[in-house]
């Protein structure tokens, strides 16, 4: 990022398979779109798609904010947890009840299938 010494982001594509599915949600990271179990198509920003793909490739595993910053978003050094928090909030809003992104206090986030009702 220009103007922030020591804070750079690499321009790398979202790594992983052509699509990934968890709990009935299928994400196409290349096109930055997901389809929910209800058949609703949801569009994401490039960074939202990167975070979601990273979490979906590690369902149930706690991913730290630093890990998400460096591995999913491509920053060379962590730039602050609020950046990740903003993307997580947007994902939660867009995905609704399709999947849950749980906060693990003091650690990071974990993607879980939504509870069956």
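^ structure tokens above, recovered residues below v
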């Amino acid at each position: 990022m220009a103007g922030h010494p020591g804070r750079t982001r690499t321009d790398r594509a979202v790594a992983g398979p052509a699509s990934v599915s968890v709990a009935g949600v299928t994400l196409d990271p290349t096109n930055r779109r997901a389809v929910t179990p209800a058949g609703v198509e949801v569009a994401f920003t490039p960074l939202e798609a990167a975070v979601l793909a990273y979490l979906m490739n590690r369902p149930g595993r706690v991913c730290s904010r630093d890990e998400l910053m460096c591995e999913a978003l491509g920053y060379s050094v962590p730039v602050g947890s609020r950046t990740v928090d903003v993307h997580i909030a947007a994902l939660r809003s867009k995905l609704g009840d399709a999947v849950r992104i749980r906060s693990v206090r003091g650690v990071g986030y974990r993607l879980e299938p939504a509870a069956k009702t």
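Confidence is low (pLDDT under 50) at residues 1-16.
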